[in-house]
Amino acid sequence: MIKKILLFIVFTLSIQHIQAQEEFITLWKPYSQSSTPGTVDAPVQSANNEIWFPGIGENYTITWEEVNYPQHSGTIPNVTSDKQVLINFGTSLNPIPADALYKVKVSNGSGTFKQIQFANNTAGWLFNGDANKVLEIQQWGNIKWQSMRSAFSYCGLLQLTASDSPDLSKATDVSYMFYNAREFIGNASMANWPTSKIKNFEYMFSGPIASPVSSTFNAPVGSWDTSSAENFSYMFYGKKFFNQNLNSWNTSKVTDMSYMFSFTRDFNQPLSNWNTSQVTNMSSMFYMNKNFNQNLDSWNTSNVTDISYMFAETENFNQPLNSWDTSQVINMTFLFHYNMNFNQPLNNWDTSSATDISHIFHGCTAFNQPLDLWDTSKVTTIALMFSGATRFNQSLETWNLPLLTTADSVFTNSGLDCNNYSKTIVGWANNPNTASNINLGSLASLSYSSDIIDQREVLINKGWIFSNDVPGQCRFLAVSEAGSKESGSIYPNPAHHIIFIRNMADIQSYVIMDATGRISGKGVVTDGTVNVESLAPGNYFLQLISKEKIHPFKFIKK
């Protein structure tokens, strides 16, 4: 008989232990004095012995007990809620009621517990639960989470002490999961989270944009299975101390990486293994990351349309990017803004789709690379592009700017010398497609050759405004003169396949423009020839570029 009783007790305890392992357990302090992110969107606000629990499910069970006073407990069976449940803990047994803590345990009961969501940002932030009163996630249990979107958003005091992992087999969304959870650190158990089904990681650990958070979050997430991931935007935004190796992540389906590591001050890990072939948005990806300096030249950027602010104010970044396919990039504004170390070749970039290249090298005091091969035929703004780029001293004479509308302060406090500034002015003046009515802003400290006064006047007559530039001491052979006085020539003309260059041994590169001024081809001259086989029949302008000048020719493609 005694043996049967003992077996019954053991069986009962085993069942209780199994049930305990199945529960989702959180720790609360109803009398929390922390700042409230906002009033809870509920009929009434909770009292100091109550909480709004933001649970979603049908016929699930909630049990609770006061910490250190297990006799003070309660059960709420058959709970069905699509937003929240008010839990009243009654009178605390703690002699200091303000210090009372409560464990809240949720199980499926006779139904299903699906989701917890402290906030909802579908139409501005609305708060479903008392985010300022929850302190810990102690156990995930066996709940099959339907979604983790905004699960613990704005839970400013939240910590993770659970050693198990959430069951994410039915979840595809963890966006905003710990958004603005200011003190959330995470723990080692996060390395084991099953994330293979997750598509949306947007804002998962991010702080608010206007005030980046400074928690010491640096959880080991490098082993996560991200094979379904599509959105990484803002994922680690503001996590200053985050510095985990993510190079093994599967990024083959990701389309958005914008702001992903922005304001992650310490992050400096290799990402060279990432497959970025589907990414379209890399805007601000490393913005304000002070330490990042990893080689990304192997990335496939063939679908990227936005790289604005990508390396702005990264300070240390100075890695090669010349192999990138930028043919689809439309927005490049502020790309390297105030990156004071960057000085890498970019002349191979295909900029034929770019419309905004303003501020790209603004404040880039180390940058001085040729950009004469860039296709600027669709560019509308170059405002402040080289402002404060004190070492930049390259000619932009080959740039074709038919759609330009804004160029304010493009060369303000740049390093352009008299010769390269003069070349640039002449090249733009001699291009009949150069836009009209452009204000270059302040050109103080820049000087131009007295030989190019006529070309400068051409632009002035087209409505261009030059402010504070002055005649300098350099001498310059104008492009029109170079074509008429030198013995160099091209043949045959008309041409079918190859154009040969005669008596010009110092030619380095070429640009071909059609009759409308649009760039039809460009490249490096290596054997004294230019291949025109791919051009459609018609009339073309050919610019042969040497170290000192450009040589213009007209030719007909048969």
Automatic annotation (TrEMBL):
Signal sequence interval, chain numbering: 1-20
Quote the Pfam families the UniProt record gives.
Answer: DUF285, Por_Secre_tail
Q: Which residues form the Secretion system C-terminal sorting domain?
A: 490-549
Q: Which InterPro entries match?
A: DUF285, Liste_lipo_26, Secre_tail
User: What are the transmembrane regions?
Assistant: none
Whether Hydrolase counts among this entry's keywords is no
- Which keywords does this chain's UniProt record carry? Signal
Task: Write the protein's name.
Answer: Por secretion system C-terminal sorting domain-containing protein
Species whose genome carries this gene: Chryseobacterium vrystaatense
